[in-house]
Amino acid sequence: MWSFANPNKFMRVSGVVLPVVAVVAVVLAVWGLYQALYVVPADFKQGDGARIMFVHVPAAALSIIVYLIMCLCSIFALIWRHPVASLSAKAAAPVGAAFTLLALVTGAIWGKPMWGAWWVWDARLTSELILFFFYIGYMALWDAFDDFTKAETATAYFCLVGSVFAVLAKYSVDLWDTLHQGSSMTIGTIATEDKLSNEFKVPLLVMIAAFYLYFLTVWLIRVRSEIRMRRIQAIRQAAVVE
Amino acid sequence: MIPDYDKYAAYIWACYGLTALVLIGLVLWSVARARAVRRELDSLDGARRRAKAGDAR
């Protein structure tokens, strides 16, 4: 894994992986959307409104996963000064922010017919909103510094502070008695139909996979851009010195 | 072709439509940005190579 710290190697490998990931993401998304919109039956409690689950849940899941990936990249950047690590965290932020925004908005739209309210200050919703602010703050902090090393360090620490809200967004429904429902599916219950029957679970898992591969696709595109921009900055600085 | 979701139709299509808009917009923006950065890097690399060739002469 450490060999991918070499930007040249990262560019070579990602150039091969990127189109494959993109094509698989599209295939899964098309199949998942077909299942979600045409095949899956109406829920006995929520009717067709439950179909919002197939975009809301993947967006919410990825909003937390992406932030935790950013935290991991930030740790690598702080401890090992991994050259590609901080750029990877920076590249992931806009995608994570988009997923968080989608989770919040689709959740509000789903909440109106189901709960009778667009918004409640429930633990999970509030944690997710604060997580969105951390995404925005993280991106703004990168632009606040002219010096790359200072920006890299400050944003890494900022990202780690925000990890509290990523964890809270995930576990708040287990810690407190909240309005937002608890997990319908966990690693332990993935093979059972206690909370979610297979006719809902399989398309949901496919949509989560599609969203994840979408993230990988856009993330790789953006990391490659960040590496190229660092090279542009280095060339310009060398020209100034000369 | 378009399924009938009765009273939930507006909510469902709003969610799916917004998701499509945001995710497609994000990938198009990322690709456009990547192409612009690559063009700029190729241009700078080309200028550097021409400058070095000029110095060598």
- The percent of residues in helical segments of chain B reads over 70%
How would you describe the shape of chain A?
globular
Average of per-residue pLDDT values of chain A: 89
Q: Any low-confidence stretches of chain A, pLDDT <50, length ≥5?
A: none
Number of helices of chain A: 6
Strand content of chain A: under 5%
State the end-to-end distance of chain B.
Answer: 69 Å
Please state the overall shape of chain B, judged from the principal axes of the Cα atoms. Answer: rod-shaped
Share of β-strand residues of chain B = under 5%
Element-by-element helix/strand order of chain A: HHHHHH
Rg on CA atoms of chain B, Å: 24 Å
Secondary structure: number of strands of chain A: 0
Query: Helix content range of the residues of chain A, please?
Result: over 70%
**Run of helices and strands of chain B:** H
How many strand units of chain B? 0
Describe the main β-sheet of chain B briefly.
none
**Unreliable segments of chain B (pLDDT under 50, ≥5 consecutive)?**
none
- Going by helix content, strand content and strand pairing, the class of chain A is mainly alpha
Calculate Rg of chain A over CA atoms: 20 Å
Instruction: State the helix count of chain B.
Output: 1
Q: Which two chains form the greatest contact, residue counts included? A: A-B, 35 and 28 residues
What would your notes on this structure say?
The complex is a heterodimer of chains A (242) and B (57). Chain A is 78% helix and 0% strand. Chain A is mainly alpha-helical and 242 residues long. Chain A has one domain (18-38, 51-241). The longest helix of chain A has 44 residues, at 198-241. The relative contact order of chain A is 0.16. The model of chain A has no long low-confidence stretch (mean pLDDT 89). Chain B is mostly helical. Helix content of chain B is 84%, strand content 0%. Chain B has one helix and no strands. Chain B is rod-shaped, with a radius of gyration of 24 Å. Chain B starts with 8 loop residues before the first helix and ends with a helix.
